[in-house]
Write a structure and sequence with these properties.
By secondary structure, the protein is α+β, with helices and mostly antiparallel strands. Helices cover 22% and strands 20% of the residues. It contains eleven helices and 21 strands. Strands 1, 2, 10, 11, 12, 13 and 21 form a seven-stranded mixed β-sheet that branches. A six-stranded antiparallel β-sheet has the order 8-15-16-17-14-20. It has a four-stranded mixed β-sheet with strand order 4-3-19-18. Helix 1 runs parallel beside helix 11 and helix 3 packs across helix 11. The protein starts with a strand and ends with a helix. The structure holds flavin-adenine dinucleotide (FAD). Flavin-adenine dinucleotide (FAD) binds next to helix 1, strand 11, helix 6 and helix 11.
Amino acid sequence: MTDRYDVIIVGTGAGGGTLAHALAPSGKKILLLERGDFLPRETQNWEPGAVFVDGRYISPDTWYDAGGTPFQPQVHYYVGGATKMYGAALYRLRPADFGPIRYSDGESPAWPIGYADLEPYYTRAEWLYQVHGNHGEDPTEGAASKQYPWPPVSHEPRIAQLADDMAASGYHPFHAPCGILLDEDRRPASTCIRCAWCDGYPCLVHAKADAEVIAVRPLLGLPTVTLLTGAEVTGLATDPSGRAVTQVRVDRAGQRETYGADIVVLAAGAANTAKILLRSASDRHPRGLANGSDQVGRNYMFHNSKAVAALAKEPNETVYQKTLGLNDFYLSDGSRPPLGNIQLLGKSNPAAMKGEEPKLTRLAPHWSLEEVARHSVDIWLTTEDLPMPGNRVTVDGEGNVHLAYRFTNATETDGLYRELKTILNKTGLAAHHVLSKNFYMDMAVPIAGVAHQAGTARFGPDPLTCVADITCKAHELDNLYFADASIFPSIGAVNPALTVMANAIRVGDHLAERLR
Ligand SMILES: Cc1cc2nc3c(=O)[nH]c(=O)nc-3n(C[C@H](O)[C@H](O)[C@H](O)COP(=O)(O)OP(=O)(O)OC[C@H]3O[C@@H](n4cnc5c(N)ncnc54)[C@H](O)[C@@H]3O)c2cc1C
């Protein structure tokens, strides 16, 4: 079967879902191909054991590390993609992130566009995803043409105290940008009940601003938009010249199908976008589609992150904890390189912390795990990792993903942790403990925590070093685009989703103009 559309979008996450939403008003015939289904709304959505221990919503994929060791990556194949599970901390990259940045292990390359180019799209993404915050509080942020659509989510008492303690010690805490459907002034009208099940959980009441709720669902009744779920794209075929994608090959319910469109957009997430290209090798594209540069799959990034449980004597009764951020160490102060972002995580609970029990109860020997969870303030540290050519996704003969990754910027990661310890000492949170990444990522192998995956098809003007051009069109093809985190030339040290969404809207404007 070959059906024809104006645009086919592969993937419905932060990139693909947002792009579809941006393009739909053009009236063009759009096909969304999503390998997953709708995430079921069920009581397990909010059960930490089901979500964090049993990994109920994680794909059964097996990937392999550089040594060939299998691992289960933390990927989520649903309508809405990774945003179904995300913490909805919707940060802009800082203006400095768009330029080159020197780190101890090398240089983070500049983006081919500047902060000012993306700013209007950041604003549109913040309004679409209903972000709560207060532009102007964080000294590191760039100028915003418009305030957030919603005021910042208020701190609960323990976090308000922490913010005050930080400010009294000379730091600059700010209200973190949160994408939740919360109206604190008219609470009965709000769908968000301000619960603890946001960061890392699907939202049972659809009150998290994820790509399914915000971008894809509103399109479902439109006659011009078709969504096929359970539709895994396995490859793309081109015309004899190799310049135009003519067929999108799909496995759906055990059947092979093909679809065609004037424009094809890959937004399958960094690793899967690379996988689709690499599996689409042909005579014209022997190393994989759009891969004459041998850059497809390379420069994979996913942040250098640490979760920290800071234990204080007084209990922390906070429910929705993700309201505070700190960027005092985000930029270089001249004497040291940039270290990264500090923000609060969703509140920990005993069931989710189960895997960390021995370490945590050794740290606080008089407390049960319940008490440890009750007293902890949960903090997330993010340092930028570098796009290294050898950090790369490849695909073997059976179509399995192999992920080679070497950590970078350990000096900066350690520096950020040292600064955090100083903060904790100054704010009465002296006892603390670093948890491994699996606390948040639910994975024993660090590289399996692929939540912030980016790179693999970076964009830029030079076809020798970049897969896509500045419009996010593949250099080597006339009708193939990218709209996910694969295009990131560097990742900065803030959460990536808002940048993916903003860029997808930018790509949407370009495509609407091209198709006019
Ligand atoms: C637990 C968790 C917490 C996070 N918290 C935050 C946060 O607080 N803030 C933030 O900014 N970011 C956060 N992130 C990261 C954020 O969700 C991602 O950066 C973002 O969703 C990436 O967008 P994307 O479009 O590249 O990929 P995705 O959103 O993952 O979308 C990819 C889509 O493609 C589909 N797909 C894959 N392969 C195929 C195929 N072959 N055929 C068809 N469809 C396919 C997938 O099912 C998926 O729907 C978090 C992620 C996780 C997992």
